[in-house]
Design brief:
This protein is of the alpha+beta class. The protein has a four-stranded antiparallel β-sheet. β3 and β4 form a beta hairpin. α1 runs parallel beside α3. The longest helix has 28 residues. The chain is elongated and about 65 Å long. The termini are far apart.
């Protein structure tokens, strides 16, 4: 009779860290958008660091960095799915780095999703407020939520390269090599045992010869 595996206990500290990062990202995004929409005229550009960095207020009907305009409802559905997936996935996390990464992704996604659900022209198709512009570096205009989303993807790549797992453990090339060697040794032992058993077995009786 097999025993069922007990459910994994949720780490309150990790969930709190994820929530803190998500709330911080969301508040920064929404406050910055409120300031832009109330103090700048749409289409207006304001030099912050000469022509290198400008504030340029636009309403984006597409994805991050003004890509795929005209498909806002698709990104609204995708963003909602991402939020649900993060909430469900969070209970498995034991690494603070993973909590920070998912917190940035959650906060940034919620920031842009709020725009799509609450801003004109309609629910689910609202235009996202973009205003950060580096003309000499990027042709696209973006916002604070986009920064958190892109940063989370960079952190995800870094954690993957470093071998940091969800539970906080770290998988290195050396440990992976040791595991491979252990598996190979186990296979060789099994094969050797099979050969020994075959040698120890009595030979098959020959059929009796006819007179």
């Amino acid at each position: 009779m097999t025993q069922s595996t007990p459910p994994t206990k949720v780490s309150v500290r990790i969930i709190a860290a994820l929530a803190f990062v998500a709330v911080t990202a969301y508040v920064l995004d929404q406050v910055s958008k409120h300031l832009v929409t109330t103090r700048l005229v749409e289409g207006e550009s304001v030099d912050v660091v000469g022509e290198f960095f400008q504030l340029h207020f636009v309403r984006n009907p597409g994805a991050a960095f003004s890509l795929a305009s005209g498909t806002t409802w698709v990104f609204s559905i995708a963003a909602s799915a991402v939020v649900v997936a993060i909430v469900v996935f969070a209970r498995r996390i034991r690494s603070r780095a993973w909590a920070v990464m998912l917190g940035m992704l959650l906060g940034g996604t919620l920031g842009n999703l709020t725009d799509r659900l609450t801003r004109e022209p309609s629910f689910g198709q609202g235009h996202v407020v973009d205003f950060l512009y580096f003309p000499s570096l990027l042709p696209a205009i973006f916002n604070v939520a986009d920064i958190f989303i892109v940063s989370s993807m960079g952190l995800l790549l870094l954690l993957t390269l470093l071998g940091v797992n969800l539970d906080g453990t770290r998988t290195t090339k050396a440990s992976a090599a040791r595991e491979a060697a252990t598996d190979q040794a186990a296979d060789e032992t099994t094969a050797a045992g099979s050969v020994t058993d075959a040698d120890a077995a009595p030979p098959a009786a020959r059929p009796s010869e006819r007179p």
